[in-house]
């Protein structure tokens, strides 16, 4: 008799939870698709490089402020407030995507070999680091904006060079697709300018 009562209580509890299942969400609904960056300058397939004949470089993932630490696209609504582009989400944080974009662009434009962190342990070659200051939309001008403060050590233990790079691309509408396309263009422009700087 006790087992029957226990089973009945369990079934009643489960039945009570069914209507709530459609009302409660423990995570935000994901967008229909995730956004990413695509390099417009990269080495062709089959290309072979060797550190015996080419200089090397280690590219560190840029640091970012809190507004760029996640996967949403920030919109600078005013000098003191930030919103986000609706239904827009990167596949990973923008600083990681930008580091990968640099890793595609710099070898293609300079001939340098990009080393991984494990390969760079004994001799990192040149070291590129920095801060991704902006990677979003300026609502006032309706521009997609990418700002990167680069720090470059050309020879281990030597002088640090710093340079700020900025690119703006106008967006017709502040929505996921036009903003991501404009940011991809701006990011490639900055990556190309960084590669030119590294290659001097």
Automatic annotation (TrEMBL):
Judging by the UniProt lineage, the source's domain of life is Bacteria
Task: Fetch the InterPro entries from UniProt.
Answer: ABC_trans_aux (IPR005586)
Q: Where is the signal peptide?
A: 1-21
- Cite a single Pfam family from the UniProt record: ABC_trans_aux
**Can you give the residue ranges of the ABC-type transport auxiliary lipoprotein component domain?**
41-195
Q: Which UniProt keywords apply?
A: Lipoprotein, Signal
Q: What is this protein called?
A: ABC-type transport auxiliary lipoprotein family protein
Upper taxonomic lineage = Bacteria, Pseudomonadati, Pseudomonadota, Alphaproteobacteria, Sphingomonadales
């Amino acid at each position: 008799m006790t087992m029957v009562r226990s089973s009945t209580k369990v079934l009643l509890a489960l039945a009570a939870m069914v209507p709530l299942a459609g009302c409660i969400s423990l995570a935000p609904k994901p967008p229909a698709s995730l956004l990413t960056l695509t390099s417009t300058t990269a080495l062709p397939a089959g290309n072979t490089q060797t550190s015996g004949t080419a200089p090397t470089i280690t590219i560190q993932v840029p640091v970012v402020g809190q507004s760029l630490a996640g996967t949403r696209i920030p919109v600078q609504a005013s000098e003191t407030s930030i919103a986000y582009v609706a239904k827009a989400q990167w596949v990973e944080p923008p600083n990681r995507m930008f580091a990968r974009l640099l890793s595609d662009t710099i070898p293609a434009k300079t001939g340098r070999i990009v080393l991984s962190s494990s390969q760079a342990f004994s001799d990192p070659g040149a070291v590129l680091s920095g801060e991704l200051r902006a990677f979003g939309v300026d609502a006032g001008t309706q521009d997609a904006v990418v700002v990167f403060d680069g720090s470059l050590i050309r020879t281990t233990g030597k002088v640090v060079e710093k340079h700020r790079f900025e690119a703006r691309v106008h967006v017709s509408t502040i929505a996921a697709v036009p903003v991501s396309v404009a940011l991809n263009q701006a990011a490639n422009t900055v990556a190309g300018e960084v590669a030119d700087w590294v290659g001097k």
